[in-house]
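Morning F.,

Quick status update on the modeling queue. The single chain you submitted on Monday has been processed. Sequence for confirmation:
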Amino acid sequence: MGPNAWEELNREVVGCKRCPRLVAWREKVAREPRASYAGEVYWGKPLPGFGDPSARLAVVGLAPAAHGGNRTGRIFTGDRSGDWLWAALWRAGLANQPSSTSRDDGLVAEGVFVTAVVRCPPPANRPLPSERDNCVGYLRRELALLGSLRVVLALGGFAYGACCKLLGAHKPPRFAHGAEVRLSDGRWLIASYHPSQQNTFTGRLTGPMLDAVIARALALAGGGGT
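Structure tokens below.
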């Protein structure tokens, strides 16, 4: 698929207003930034995925963070979850730098595409089923455009459940860190704990655990990073 297909999809994502509750919340957050971000102009719109269109690995999260991606305009950027994820992807050779702080910070993803099930920050990080269903078509189209895709790494139970349904996983195992599903088309779905503060601060997810699941995903994809 050519760049025009990506450009069209990204325009649709950014212009989406299907979910009134999410539209109201993301715009309210953008109008009323945290004191630590006072003076910053928030993105305040839905977020497309980010990464390498020739990627063999896709990483799927829940949704943008209210003061992370919703502020910076790039998925997993400007928040603690993004700090953890991109540092791990960098260690795996899938990014040119270990941090993602803004849209113009020079980050380049190499062999990986990072996205989410829901494209607006939901209140309390809890999207409604209808909001998930309104948004999941964008994820379906992104994965279809990734012609070299071999493995999907789902971060957290919400993303894992959505990806199981989207990818047609037959009798998948219950969500657990490291759970693997062989899909009917030969590709793989792998689960990981989400690199949220609730998991990283408590030690439920450690750096070595995240590194290991990414390494396993790369092995199943047939190669490592650069």
